Amino acid sequence: MELIKLSxxxxxxxxxxxxxxNSVKRILKKGLCDPNHKDMDWNDRTPLHWAAxxxxxxxxxxxxxxxxxxxxxxxVGWTPAHFAAESGHLHVLKTLHAxxxxxxxxxxxxxxxxxxxxxxGQKACVAFLEKAEPQCxxxxxxxxxxxxxxxxxxxxxDAKKREMELSLPSWNPNPEKKKSKKHRGSTKLxxxxxxxx
Length: 197
Description:
64% of the residues lie in helices and 0% in strands. Helix 3 packs parallel to helix 5. By secondary structure, the chain is mostly helical. The chain is built from ten helices and no strands. It has a single domain (2-155), classed as Alpha Horseshoe (Serine Threonine Protein Phosphatase 5, Tetratricopeptide repeat).
């Protein structure tokens, strides 16, 4: 049974990337696959990431209707909004914003979809995101005040991000060693003074 699920999931990612609405619909109706499956061979991209990359709005909506979560991120923290911004798919960004997806979420390096759109010269996306980001923050704040839970966190990402942070080289890897060296140096100096006396 597990092999069937994996096979169908591979087909789902491929069908979404190709924009094959009918195949995506057929695969999802089988109910043998999770529309939130992260493909490790493609940097943890979900089918929703592929729909955003390719700008397949109808497929994106079909995935959402079958439980795809816009908050899931790749191995470097990219949401579907990052990919839509990179590719200039304004219609995808508008749809994600209408669904209250966190279109202002930073990736591992701190880049938001707006920053990605700026880097890739997607001026229409930048203009939209400049207006949409404050609305996104306001919606989150209003939901918090009402005690509503929003689906804007990828639970797996927090642990993965921490692991990545710990694997980065540190500018000052052992601050305690430096302190202890200074301490030992002053001990030697005081020993020398004692010998002179």
